[in-house]
Design goal:
This protein is of the alpha+beta class. The strands form 3 sheets. Strands 1, 2, 3, 4, 5, 6, 7, 8, 9, 10, 11, 12, 13 and 14 form a 14-stranded mixed beta sheet that branches. The protein has a 3-stranded mixed beta sheet with strand order 16-19-18, covered by helices on one side. Mean pLDDT is 82; it is low at 62-79. The longest helix is centred in the first third of the chain and has 54 residues, at 25-78. It has 3 domains: 3-69, no CATH class; 79-218, Jelly Rolls; 226-303, Phage tail protein beta-alpha-beta fold. Strand 11 and strand 12 (192-196) form a beta hairpin. 32% of the residues lie in helices and 36% in strands.
């Protein structure tokens, strides 16, 4: 582009050409130094802004991490996992049930307020622990590797079957009921009971003498579908079922109601008041519910 075209272009945009800007070499050098100074200042500002952006991003990531941690902890209140080098421990809170798939593909449904421990990998024996609570086990058949559930000193040995183990620490009884197949149940005194479909063995924690009963085993796992079915159950069993279902604490005179046995059916979709009214009709109790999710039950009991 020649000088004439440059001058025409400057005029078109309403600016002065270089010849009209500088008043000599000293003036040109001064302006050049000013431009360099402004460029360096601009670069410094940009670097500061970039640093600020990085800090903001870091803060955002930390905030996000905190939010994720909060969500994980919140989820943990519903379904808590604990890991160590070899085992996984699962705790299901009150009002919830959960299904687990074990390393061999077998499944376990855990009832409310249950704690279950199992290895990350099975070896020569498939040994799991029902630390507290109740579980329905559906076990994959394996002739070479037996499956063993240990619960409060009671061992249930199977090759492949489905069964329910109930071992709440708050109760005075432990039980195993067979839904399909066959199991062998042994206690710490080496008393063994071999059970087939629709048979249940019950241990009392006071004397540990096993008692084998004929039952409808599918009723023992009805809680898996939101139904609670208790037949000739002690009052403590009924109370615990309500506490775990409705996340309440029930206070009552345990000695008065110790020998009370009742049969009851209710659905977890029913309200707490509906279920307590049902017990009122059956057992003749009176009850009071306070705001702290605490229920006070009174009555003559069964002594």
């Amino acid at each position: 582009m020649n000088e004439k075209d440059k001058n025409d272009l400057y005029k078109e945009f309403g600016i002065n050409g270089p010849s009209g800007v500088f008043k000599g070499e000293n003036d040109k050098e001064a302006i050049r130094q000013e431009i360099l100074g402004r460029l360096q200042a601009t670069k410094k500002i940009q670097q500061q802004q970039q640093h600020s952006v990085k800090l903001k991003r870091k803060k955002a990531m930390l905030s996000m991490a905190a939010a994720i941690s909060f969500l994980i902890l919140s989820a943990g209140l519903l379904f808590y996992y604990s890991y160590n080098s070899n085992y996984i421990t699962v705790t299901v809170p009150k009002g919830e049930t959960r299904q687990l798939v074990l390393p061999d593909g077998s499944t376990v449904w855990l009832n409310s307020a249950s704690t279950f421990k199992y290895p990350k990998k099975f070896g020569k024996k498939r040994l799991v622990y029902l630390v507290d609570g109740e579980g329905f086990f559906n076990i994959i058949h394996d002739d070479k590797v037996p499956f063993v559930v240990e619960a409060s000193g009671i061992k249930t040995n199977v090759l492949g079957t489905s069964f329910v183990v109930k071992s709440y620490q708050a109760l005075s009884t432990r039980s195993v009921a067979v839904v399909t197949g066959k199991v062998a149940v042994t206690d710490e005194h080496d008393q063994t009971s071999v059970l087939i479909k629709n048979e249940e063995v019950v241990y009392n924690t006071d004397h540990r003498k096993p008692k084998v009963l004929k039952v409808k085993a599918t009723e023992r796992m009805a809680w898996n579908d939101g139904n609670v079915i208790l037949n000739a159950a002690y009052f403590e069993d009924l109370v615990l079922a309500i506490e775990n279902t409705y996340q309440v604490k029930i206070k009552y005179d345990q000695q008065k109601f110790k020998n009370c046995q009742n049969s009851i059916r209710f659905n977890t979709h029913q309200s707490l008041t509906e279920v307590l009214d049902l017990i009122k009709e059956i057992q003749g109790i009176t009850y009071q519910i306070n705001k702290e999710k605490e229920v006070l039950i009174t009555g003559s009991g069964c002594n």
